[in-house]
Amino acid sequence: xxxxxxxxxxxxxxxxxxxxxxxxxxxxxxxxxxxxxxxxxxxxxxxxxxxxxxxxxxxxxxxxxxxxxxxxxxxxxxxxxxxxxxxxxxxxxxxxxxxxxxxxxxxxxxxxxxxxxxxxxxxxxxxxxxxxxxxxxxxxxxxxxxxxxxxxxxxxxxxxxxxxxxxxxxxxxxxxxxxxxxxxxxxxxxxxxxxxxxxxxxxxxxxxxxxxxxxxxxxxxxxxxxxxxxxxxxxxxxxxxxxxxxxxxxxxxxxxxxxxxxxxxxxxxxxxxxxxxxxxxxxxxxxxxxxxxxxxxxxxxxxxxxxxxxxxxxxxxxxxxxxxxxxxxxxxxxxxxxxxxxxxxxxxxxxxxxxxxxxxxxxxxxxxxxxxxxxxxxxxxxxxxxxxxxxxxxxxxxxxxxxxxxxxxxxxxxxxxxxxxxxxxxxxxxxxxxxxxxxxxxxxxxxxxxxxxxxxxxxxxxxxxxxxxxxxxxxxxxxxxxxxxxxxxxxxxxxxxxxxxxxxxxxxxxxxxxxxxxxxxxxxxxxxxxxxxxxxxxxxxxxxxxxxxxxxxxxxxxxxxxxxxxxxxxxxxxxxxxxxxxxxxxxxxxxxxxxxxxxxxxxxxxxxxxxxxxxxxxxxxxxxxxxxxxxxxxxxxxxxxxxxxxxxxxxxxxxxxxxxxxxxxxxxx
Length: 669
Prior knowledge:
Elements: H1 2-15, E1 21-37, E2 43-57, E3 61-63, E4 66-72, E5 81-85, H2 87-94, E6 97-98, E7 103-112, E8 116-126, E9 132-140, E10 152-159, E11 164-166, E12 171-191, E13 196-214, E14 227-234, E15 239-245, E16 249-251, E17 257-258, E18 261-262, E19 276-279, E20 283-287, E21 290-291, E22 296-304, E23 308-313, E24 323-326, E25 333-343, E26 352-353, E27 359-362, E28 369-375, E29 380-384, E30 389-394, E31 399-404, E32 410-415, E33 420-425, E34 431-436, E35 441-446, E36 454-458, E37 468-474, E38 479-485, E39 494-498, E40 504-506, E41 520-523, E42 529-534, E43 539-544, E44 549-550, E45 563-564, E46 570-573, E47 576-579, E48 599-602, E49 608-613, E50 617-622, E51 628-632, E52 640-643, E53 649-654, E54 660-667
Parallel strand pairs: 11-16, 19-27
Antiparallel strand pairs: 1-2, 2-7, 3-6, 3-8, 4-5, 4-8, 8-9, 10-12, 12-13, 12-14, 14-15, 17-21, 18-20, 20-24, 22-23, 22-25, 25-26, 25-27, 28-54, 29-30, 30-31, 31-32, 33-34, 34-35, 35-36, 37-38, 38-39, 39-40, 41-42, 42-43, 43-44, 45-46, 46-47, 48-49, 49-50, 50-51, 52-53, 53-54
């Protein structure tokens, strides 16, 4: 059947020729080649192909897929690759239809990573006919590539030619190349003490004389001869190479260097100088900034006058950004820090030493410390040395929790009808006086009874002024002193309440004209002295229970809670320490730097001030001049600190309005 059809077709053709179309595509001109590079820096060669098309015949035609044959090197008989160009791309360049008699021009850009040639077989189908092909060839390379002689390397030298190249110095490689076909790529390879490779584009130059400045890597071995190899590739993909074995070695006779920066004790910005106070167990943070022409082997530091040395060993020349010089816990007094470096061949750098008497280290004193965590948030504590108990004022929970100092366990809780706003122990330790929010009374908890029952002492208030009790402290003569808040100055008074008779009187000598400003009230550990610090008006007063008199106002330490020693001989507001005459004591240089105002507590005998610093624990200052004595680690970050009335214990509380309270008990004996 197939043979019959072919015969019929042949017969038809012989009597009535079928109309057809012939297309000719020629290369009118070539633009380029031009050099560029891709996103990774690899060379690219681009040519602009300007094609012309003529069509002759009787019918229209449509495009089919084209075949692109890609040639590299000098062989133009066997393509390196063959690609299919979709008919849609062909139609985009020439138009969808080919009509008889038309002449067209079309520009095509071809690109490759090497000099190349090609042939495009444009395929088309006349209407009602079979597929036909018109082929066009092109070259995207310099003229004469196919017949050019291979490339040659006429010279290859290095500078210095022999001897020793100082580590870190550049090596100069000089070469001359002839490439009649055009130089496409030059590859330099260095071996021996290390490996180094570099590739540069030839830009299709026929001759190239160049000096490459080579910075060898830092991990090169010393005293190993260098070998230099050069390879070239021309546009015809012909290769030439040359190797130079030298007696040149890398040497190191240059000492390393350091330009250290030191971080201050408070963790501020680094500086070329160092000063301030550190503590045993701390580390001085240093940015060594070490450098060497070959390799730094170690960063060394030494602490004078102790002569203690330590170092950081450098591996694979990965220099540390920071080193930490640790200070031993027992060290005390002025120190100097020496920093230097040593390189891989044992050469030592310059030595940088901090200034004399600019850095002081103070002992780390690890006092016996116990901790516990209890339920509830704690606003304040009262330490009962007589019974070995700590009373926790837990406002959100409306209770007083009783903590045993021996077991650090809560032994009982005293529920309260309202939020406990303030409280204080009586001097005998037999009663705990509590102010409850919104209640015009002093709630009394009798601590001598097995069952801790509540009684009350009424307070006389002016309801029209919204007067309410806010603070309470008990004096050594059996009288309580209560501060009031309210809407007007007339309401913000201080009352003296006789605990035996319940007689209440307003102290018009408190504050300014009787206006106590709802101030902060604190007592000495023996309750013989009270300190009143008011905000509005500003007034700091000392009250002597024995003489029943307030001092004149002093406008210092606004809003700070005072801390008072056992007898009232000293008090402190933050880091400011005062004597009984309310004169601020002098300060020596070198107080611990803090952000804001730290929590403080005076020792019972008044000779030291404990300063709570979150990053350091407890720093003890000498009262007479605020000089630093030592540091004690504290496992909690306290919201308040208190010293026991007998001076044997410091209790710190970390609560911060949470659902639990962490407590540390530190033995000061």
